[in-house]
Amino acid sequence: MVQVRLLWQQLYLQYMKPNRGRLQTAEHILAHILESKGSVVNVVIAKFEENLGLLEVTSNEDLREMDAAKLQAEVNYVVVKHLAVKKYFIEREVAGAKFNLSRIPASVCELRIVEIEGFDKTPCRDPHVENTREIGTFVLLSVKRVGKDRYRFVFRVD
Q1: N or C: which terminal CB in the chain sees fewer CB atoms within 10 Å?
Q2: So what's the pLDDT on residue 1?
Q3: CA–CA separation, 120 vs 27, rounded Å?
């Protein structure tokens, strides 16, 4: 019975949730590109629905003025590099020297790190792919201002 249940869970995740991990890994790439643009960009929240990803950031610049097609191309450029996506755990004390942990509860003693090889390292508990090529094609659907200095990026992967 246990083997059947585990097999069903694996099949469900693989076939019934085809975007599992793809949107989350694409969000890491998008966030890293935005943070490296020169203006001060801070990730506020990332949310995922069945077929859509949503990333909200704050910025002192109007991010609606960015070239959306160029940003989409930058994300896809990283996707097709075939970069390994590693997941591992480190102690909070070690992580505190490398990452901003202000949004992670103090009760969390060990953090899961998602590393897109040679590109980005971020604490994250969400599912991710094993390689960036598994993401498919990143499609940026919209960039909207949703607050004084807050912007929402909506995207999907094909």
Answers
A1: N
A2: 43
A3: 11
Q: In which domain, by residue range, is 121 found? A: 19-157
Q: Are 23 and 53 in contact (CB under 8 A)?
A: yes
Q: Decide if 56 contacts 144 (C-beta within 8 A).
A: no
| Inside any domain, residue 14 | no
User: Does residue 6 belong to any structural domain of this protein?
Assistant: no
Tell whether the model's pLDDT for residue 42 goes beyond 70: yes
Name the nearest CA neighbour of 133 among 153, 156, 114, 157: 157
Torsions phi, psi for 143 (to 5 deg): -135, 120
Kindly tell me if the per-residue pLDDT of 11 is higher than 70: no
Q: Which two tokens stand for residue 40?
A: 């001060």
**Rounded-to-integer distance, Cα 41 and Cα 36, Å:** 8
